[in-house]
Amino acid sequence: MIEMRGAAGAQLRALVLGAGAGGGFPQWNCRCRNCASFWAGEAGLAPMSQSSLAVSADGENWLLLNASPDLRQQIINASQMHPRAGKRHSPIKAVLLTNGDLDHIAGLITLREKQGFDLLATEEIHSVLRANPVFEALDPEFVSRKPIALEAPSEVLPGLTVTLFAVPGKVPLFLEGEGPVDTSAVGEFTVGVEIAAAGQRLFYIPGCAALPADLAARLSGADLLFFDGTVYHDDEMIREGVGHKTGARMGHMAMAGPGGSLAAFSGLPIGRKIFIHINNTNPVLRAGSTERAAVRAAGWEIACDGLEVALTRQDQSAQAQGR
Amino acid sequence: MIEMRGAAGAQLRALVLGAGAGGGFPQWNCRCRNCASFWAGEAGLAPMSQSSLAVSADGENWLLLNASPDLRQQIINASQMHPRAGKRHSPIKAVLLTNGDLDHIAGLITLREKQGFDLLATEEIHSVLRANPVFEALDPEFVSRKPIALEAPSEVLPGLTVTLFAVPGKVPLFLEGEGPVDTSAVGEFTVGVEIAAAGQRLFYIPGCAALPADLAARLSGADLLFFDGTVYHDDEMIREGVGHKTGARMGHMAMAGPGGSLAAFSGLPIGRKIFIHINNTNPVLRAGSTERAAVRAAGWEIACDGLEVALTRQDQSAQAQGR
């Protein structure tokens, strides 16, 4: 097959640095069924680091979507992220945060050491960072903190445009406070990302409490979707005896059930659908599970650390083949 | 050889979770000689995660000395740190911080998830944590923050007593501010730790700007010392072209030179001396280097991730052998 790239060799690529939810898999102090199996050395369970995706339009310069606490090891594990030139270098040219959760911001601490990049987020997420002096390790001489407004397309790297949009969610756990928490609020604290490059559209939504009609319409026709795959059953953590919260309480729609993502996305035309941000308790992590089979049967893939997806330009390659 | 344990089976053990300095080895954006060799896949250079030591008097319950950003992976890599019972468990029963540097505190974020432990530090280091809302992820219902005064022995785990003492150093980099920095100040912001258990004395001093006579006297006769091995040459980062700071400016005494640790410790009676908190630029990391040979010739060892030292009770084993 002839593959024809865009004028500047552009091709949208996505690299899963971490497929896991907060705490990763295994979780440090957990003996749920999956974790206990992992600690016991059972086969069929791959470890996952915490949620992060890298995207690029040219394979050289990368946008990091969320900075997980595991970022240092994720960079070491992925040759695409290694420094390549001079004494100080990184292919990571920009970092975009989709919320203020610890599993998405703590890795910023890894990115110290006088390396220039743009730090992109909504104004509300920037304010979470400003409230924590530890992030002052990012020297403003090198790191430019730039607010991005919702629904305003922004070319953050040459040929790569992002648009942020609000999705149902909640404020970060460590900022919840004492009172009741609105778990499907819509605002600047939890966003989804549309990434457009080389004529392709990719969506990254690692946290989402529900799929309202306007969000479904937005995602319709996308070439690639990475979506919140935290829990399979809404009450999974309770069933496993490792927590008292439902997926809904954590701001994550479950995969299964009438209000779950498998049902909600059924029939929606999307090129490729991949679950990401998968919790340690999720039974889809087990190679032979019925839940994993159900997810695959519904047309979904399950992300793993190191998964790379390179989208080809359907229209151009069709033209090239027609010559 | 007959090994006789103490009455309660007590034996002081130390496990190096991370032997590296801030940023670890390799450092994410660095191409100093060592890092460039690592990225190129050259042999003879082992990766190191960031500075942390675990100690135990019974092999079951562990005190963590510093919580590095790499803590999640360090726990996965060390079977001694795995959860062993019930649904939630950890052998880590207490965490002690020796300063407020990011490479020593960021890992606290990993220790969320409703696990009880004591968080121990000087009042000044606790105040650094309190100034950062991200650490409120440690639920006070489970995590007890306890101040420890300098020079006050405290039994932090059964049979394991720690004493904190000030060593020459400086405030954390991210709190330095604009003005000149006192790099060999003495106070609560940089401490050394004496750990006594089963009749043995271990010292852990990952950051130290100088060795004044009173500190040398304190360390004299110790069974085991883990000491600041950040740089070999004071101007090593400048020589390598990856920074403009000397070891002294960073609050770390170099190994080499007239004021270096090799000279300063010469002749001081210490059972076993191990360098820890080793920077990515340090030439001792290279298997065949003259610097590594010089360190070994001076009676020092160089820590690596996963190194475990179990001290035997000399007196008792001698008695046992004499029977």
Task: Give the % helix of chain A.
Answer: 10-25%
User: Uncertain runs of chain A with pLDDT below 50, 5 residues or more?
Assistant: 1-7, 315-323
Q: Within the largest sheet of chain A, what's the order of strands? A: 6-5-4-3-2-1-14
Largest sheet of chain A: 7 strands, mixed
The helix/strand class of chain A is alpha/beta
Distance between the termini of chain A: 12 Å
Q: Average the pLDDT over all residues of chain A and give the rounded result.
A: 91
Measured on Cα atoms, how large is the radius of gyration of chain A? 19 Å
Q: State the shape of chain A.
A: globular
Measured by DSSP, the beta-strand proportion of chain A falls in 15-25%
| Overall structural domain count of chain A | 1
User: What is the number of strand segments of chain A?
Assistant: 14
Provide the CATH top-level class of chain A: Alpha Beta
Which pair of chains forms the biggest interface, and how many residues does each contribute?
A-B, 51 and 50 residues
Model description:
The structure is a homodimer of 323-residue chains. Chain A is α/β, with parallel strands linked by helices. Chain A has one domain (13-175, 185-322): Ribonuclease Z/Hydroxyacylglutathione hydrolase-like (Metallo-beta-lactamase, Chain A, 4-Layer Sandwich), CATH 3.60.15.10. In chain A, 18% of the residues lie in helices and 21% in strands. In chain A, helix 2 links the parallel strand 3 (62-65) and strand 4. The longest helix of chain A has 9 residues, at 314-322. At the A-B interface, helix 2 of A face helix 2 of B.
